[in-house]
Amino acid sequence: MSTIGSIRSLPIAVLSVSLTASACGGSSAPPEESTVPPTVPTAAPVAAGWKATDGIATPESVYVDEGSGFIFSSQIDGAPDARDGNGRIVQLARNGRVVSADWVTGLNAPKGLRSHKGTLWTADLDEVIGIEIANGRISARTKIDGAMFLNDVAVGPDGTVYVSDMMANRIHAIRDGMATVFAEGEQLEWPNGLLVDGNRLIVGGWGKPKPDFSTEVPGHLFALDLQTKQKTLITPKPFANIDGLERDGRGGYIVSDYLAGKILQVSATGEARELRQFMPGTADIAFIPTGNVLIVPHMNENIVASYDLSDVLK
Length: 314
What we know:
By secondary structure, the protein is mostly beta strands. The chain has one domain (52-308): 6 Propeller (Neuraminidase). 0% of the residues lie in helices and 48% in strands. The two termini are 26 Å apart.
């Protein structure tokens, strides 16, 4: 529809001074600069095997921001369409520790998360909100006219923010605070998950929903060319009510099926295979190929948890 310990650095300053003396009198040679490189702070790997529950209430999305080293999770804390001001963003450490349960408050029903150049973007009902990661301050709000159910967000390398409107069968593009319709129509298959991958927008279709959000026919995983907007199927057959969507580091993708509670891997050739089975409510996931760590917001269980997929990935 998704933490991280402190980062410590120990700067090293090394100064090597050579003293030379001559028979005619002593003089100091200029200091020689050390060739020892300074210590560069690095974040610890994202750990597998943790479970976070403190401050977690209807978690919809989880996102690992490598720039800050933190994990962020959107909390609906109520109904997914409620305009109640209960929505929050939780900040976690990479070991699952909740750093701040109220990192950002006063939202309604925030869902997808992505960052670009220090700004964390989230979809909240009918607007897309930008948050400064350095201080948690809301720095941008873009209202989407006619929005029905904004869901996931993705960001292109040029900073364009793409947001899916699942119930309107529409994808919007936001650039410099201006929103335009990128694509629309039933060929989008009631789009949910989004991911920019090179010159393509990867889209996870949900399928036409009934009132209870179940479907007669689920969705495909497909791609839209960012320039021509031409649709290309990745999976030849519809296979899931797709919510979360990430690269698998192997040329394919990891996706979540919200209604079935499944995590699946889709190969570069479009073959889909099940990796894990959970309770229904596996929402907008994160996946870290280094370490094969999956992070799942278990939306119906008020849990965010991480898992090692090394034993099941191909």
